[in-house]
Structure formats: C-alpha cells, structure tokens
Amino acid sequence: MPLPTNPLQMVHLGPRKKRSRQMGASMVCPSHDVKFQDLVLYILEKKMGTTRRAFLMELARRKGFRVENELSDSITHIVAENNSGSEVLEWLQGQNHKASSQLELLDVSWLIESMAAGTPVEMTGKHQLVKRDYSASPSPELQKTPPLVIKKISQYACQRRTTLNNCNQIFTDAFDVLAENYEFRENEVFCLAFMRAASVLKSLPFTIISMKDTEGIPCLEDKVKCIIEEIIEDGESSEVKAVLNDERYQSFKLFTSVFGVGLKTSEKWFRMGYRTLNKIKLDKTLKFTPMQKAGFLYYEDLVSCVTREEAEAVGMLVKEAVWAFLPEAFVTMTGGFRRGKKIGHDVDFLITSPGSRDEDEEQLLPKVINLWERKRVDSGKCSQQEGKTWKAIRVDLVMCPYERRAFALLGWTGSRQFERDIRRYATHERKMILDNHALYDKTKKIFLKAESEEEIFAHLGLDYIEPWERNA
C-alpha cells in the first residue's frame, strides 16, 4: 500500500487524542443483517404495549433476528408477554390466522435469553406457551424469569470482561453522544458519568428492557437512569435528540474531526461564526499548524475507517522501516485492532528492542520518517490529490525501552475507559501509581518490575483480562 506523501499523516508523536466520529454517525442504524434465516418472529402487542413492542423489535433486529411488523403465514415464532398459550391462540383466531403445528408460541423470556446469548437458545418448557383454560392462573413455569443471574458488578472496568458484543447499544450510543457533548463543553463531571455508565452497560451479557434490570448495577447515576427510562418508554431520548440538533455540538463535532484540531481551536472557530470547513479553509487570516494542514489536505481519507487489512499492510511497511535500523526490534500493533476490532480511525504500533542503546531509541523515529521521506522523493510522488491512488492513514508510533514494554503495551492497548479505571483502581484500591512506563508501590516505596501484562495484573491483585475483553 503506497505511503502518504507527508510524514505528518503517517506518524503522530504527540499525546494521544480521542478520535471523533464523523458527523451524524452516532445513533444511525439504517438496516440490520439477518443472521438466522430460518426464524421469522412476530412480537405480540397484546398486554405488552406499542412502545415496549417497538423497543424489543429494534433490539431483536440489532441481534440479527428477522422480526415482521405484520402477522403472515411466514411467521415461525410468536413471542408474547404475560399471555398464556390459550390467549395467544384465541387472539390468532380473532385475526383469522390458522396456527400451523410448526408455529412456536413462546414467552418473551426466550427472546431475551436469545438476545443475551447472541443466538437462538433451546426452547424448553419454561419458554413454550402450552394451551390451558383461559380462567386458569398461570403456572409457575410460565412466569417470566430473569435472563441471567447477575453477579456483583464492579465499578472498575479492569474487573469486568467487556467484549465487542454490546447487548445495550441503544443506550450506550445515547451515552456516547451526551458524554461527547459534555466533553465539548469541558464539563468533566457529567462527561465521566456518561462514559462510565456506557462502559458498565457494554460489559453486561444481557439487554436491559426494564428499570428493574438496572438494580445493583454501579455507575448509573440518577441523570443516567432518567435517560435509560426514557429510551425504554419512548424508544429514544429527547435530550440526545436535542444534542444531535444543537448547532454548537454539530460544529464542534465537525471541527474536531479534522486531524490536529482540539477544543480550544473549535471554540475559537465557533465564536468567529464558522459552521463549515470550507469557510475556515478559505479564511487567509487563520494560521494552521502542520498537523491541521495535513488534516485538511487529507480530510476525506483521515475521517474514513481504516480496515484491519489496511492496518496489517501498514504494519508491514512499519516493520520494514524499523528493521532497517533495529533488526531485532519487536513491532506490535496495539489499540483497537489488538482488542479485536475490524475497523478503526488510526493504527498504533509499539516498538521496542532488546539490547538497544538509549541513543538508538531516541534516533529511531526520526530515521524512520527520513527513510519514508526519501522513498517518497525517489518515487516521484507528490501531495496533489488529483489522480491519487493511495490513502492517507494516521499511524501512531511509540518507542519504549525494552524493560518497560509490558507497561507500554498495557497502556496503548486501551480502551480509554479501561485504562482510566485500571489506573484509578491502582490508586484507590492498591495505593499504587500506574502509567505507561511503570508501576510504583507507594506503601513499599519501590517500583515493581514486570516482564508481561500478566505480571502487572498480578501485582495489582487482578485477574488477567485478555485484550479482546478490554473493550470498555
């Protein structure tokens, strides 16, 4: 894959910066892939209500289930809540629908458990609605059961296993928007409140469908619970809707999508009356940093997603350049791709070499950049966009001493909330200080050595959590 013509697009050596999503990306899900073709569900509104039915239909579709709006002969499973089999059959008769012997009549608990598992679970007696007298009281086996027995959930992401299987995306998408808005307004308290709430909900192995399901879950403050309740009842949050339509939020989201633009610059441009990037670029009085110039020049490339295939191709280029100067160096892809993500907005690499000298480490990155620059000149590539056959990708290169590689690997793997929580846990629960370089025990007044991430977790008294379980 051809290299960007300007190293500024390729290498970022400054502090790590959160990547904003593209305008309008939040809360948008136009269609859902059907994973289970043999199942066609119909969710009965009777005794459930219109809003709750719509909510469950959307959740089921997100999980890959085919859910029909109308009753038809193609339906294979009817899901009901607080209805007996007799009541469902009576309702079907009133709709002039003849129930075939293959039609399954199921309690909503089957759908809830299936969504939590990510696949249709086995239908047992507690799920199947057997025919009985209309006047009979519901048998104990037909009572609604909770989807899972919830163990005590930690407030710290480093004590929770969080995969990419998010059962509560309808809530966490909303929290992400609100957290981002508070971040734009530099309100750290509310920003962290919604980030922590989103983090804990991502770790749950089941979908929240009622406020009762939130009992015992940490990090859900009153303001957060109000948003959850409104989404359960109405299918959306009025506050989130207002934020998405807010001119300031829209402007800040657009401005910060430019590489090198932070909150202070966004605030300045907003106060100057700018609302589009084109007008900003045309203002000759504005001075842009080298990173911002690169951000504007390659804007479409840099806001587009980077695929795993692209990240691995870049990885080969990085290794080739690094090994030209340090043949024994280890080059490890970190960030979201190490956590199992298939797409991202940038690619992070950790570089370390056993036996290397301090001057070798200090000079490596400048040497790598100079090598790429020479190759660009030799190949005759220019920075003009017309006829461009390559894609600019942001790459973060981190060089660390070999003896500190475990701490750097842990710190650069993420996620952001996981890193915040493991450091918070170290400080508040273990009286230690953890960062990307070391682990310091304040009680013993010593630095603790670690050859691997597993040893760091052991020092902290934590169960080891694999990288793909850190998507907090």
Please tell me about this protein's structure.
The chain is mainly α and 472 residues long. Among the domains are: 41-135, Rossmann fold (3-Layer(aba) Sandwich); 157-244, DNA polymerase, domain 1, CATH 1.10.150.110; 407-469, DNA polymerase, thumb domain (Beta Polymerase, domain 3). The protein is built from 19 helices and 11 strands. It has helices spanning 7-10, 50-62, 85-94, 108-117, 169-184, 188-202, 222-234, 238-244, 247-255, 263-271, 277-282, 290-297, 299-303, 308-323, 335-338, 358-379, 405-413, 416-430, 453-459, and strands at 41-43, 77-80, 104-107, 306-307, 330-333, 343-344, 347-352, 395-399, 432-434, 439-441, 446-448. The strands form 4 sheets. The protein has a 3-stranded parallel sheet. Strands 5-7-8 form a 3-stranded mixed sheet, with helices on both faces. α5 (169-184) packs antiparallel against α6 (188-202), α5 (169-184) crosses α7 and α5 (169-184) crosses α8. The longest helix is centred in the last third of the chain and has 22 residues, at 358-379. The chain starts with 6 loop residues before the first helix and ends in a 13-residue tail after the last helix. 35% of the residues are buried. Residues 1-30 and 131-150 have low confidence and may be disordered.
Task: Record the SSE blueprint.
Layout: H1 7-10, E1 41-43, H2 50-62, E2 77-80, H3 85-94, E3 104-107, H4 108-117, H5 169-184, H6 188-202, H7 222-234, H8 238-244, H9 247-255, H10 263-271, H11 277-282, H12 290-297, H13 299-303, E4 306-307, H14 308-323, E5 330-333, H15 335-338, E6 343-344, E7 347-352, H16 358-379, E8 395-399, H17 405-413, H18 416-430, E9 432-434, E10 439-441, E11 446-448, H19 453-459
Parallel strand pairs: 1-2, 2-3, 7-8
Antiparallel strand pairs: 4-6, 5-7, 9-10, 10-11
Helix pairs in contact: 5-6, 5-7, 5-8, 9-10
